[in-house]
Design goal:
This protein is mostly beta strands. It is built from no helices and 9 strands.
């Protein structure tokens, strides 16, 4: 069961690019948020084991505003090989999530927050990634 009528399924590509945008006016001011990719890896998936994806969340036009992220170099593994990388967390709804980054909304700040997940350098084929969306929620403990 998912919250949306449709989800996106990656069939067979060598270029992965997922982008999202939200107006900061839709979010509470003076709040730390985290953006999460919500997805499933099917039993037939391949191409995500060894190639990291680049992630970011920032205010549009703010080149210095890339999020501070726990993931080295702004990259992470959607399906890391055994014993390596950051692991996605399984949610109670059956989907997996992995943090893309975090950002702070400020009082009076108006603009677009851009989020992206990209793997365009490796050239390896990828398939069977099902994406529900990008979820934004207040960051725990901040």
């Amino acid at each position: 069961m998912n919250r949306f009528a449709e989800v996106a399924k990656l069939i067979d590509v060598c270029w992965l690019e997922i982008r999202g945008m939200i107006s900061s006016g839709m979010l509470s001011p003076e709040t730390h948020y985290a953006a999460y990719l919500v997805f499933k890896i099917t039993p037939a998936s391949h191409g995500f084991e060894f190639q990291p994806v680049e992630v970011e969340a920032r205010f549009a036009g703010d080149e210095a505003g890339k999020v501070s992220t726990q993931h080295a170099g702004g990259s992470l593994m959607l399906a890391p090989a055994e014993g390596s990388g950051n692991y996605p967390k399984e949610r109670r709804d059956g989907w997996s999530e992995i943090e893309l980054g975090e950002f702070l909304t400020k009082e009076g700040q108006d603009g677009e927050v851009e989020m992206s997940v990209m793997e365009t350098k490796g050239g390896n084929w990828k398939a069977e990634l099902v994406v529900e969306g990008i979820e934004i929620r207040p960051k725990d403990g901040k």
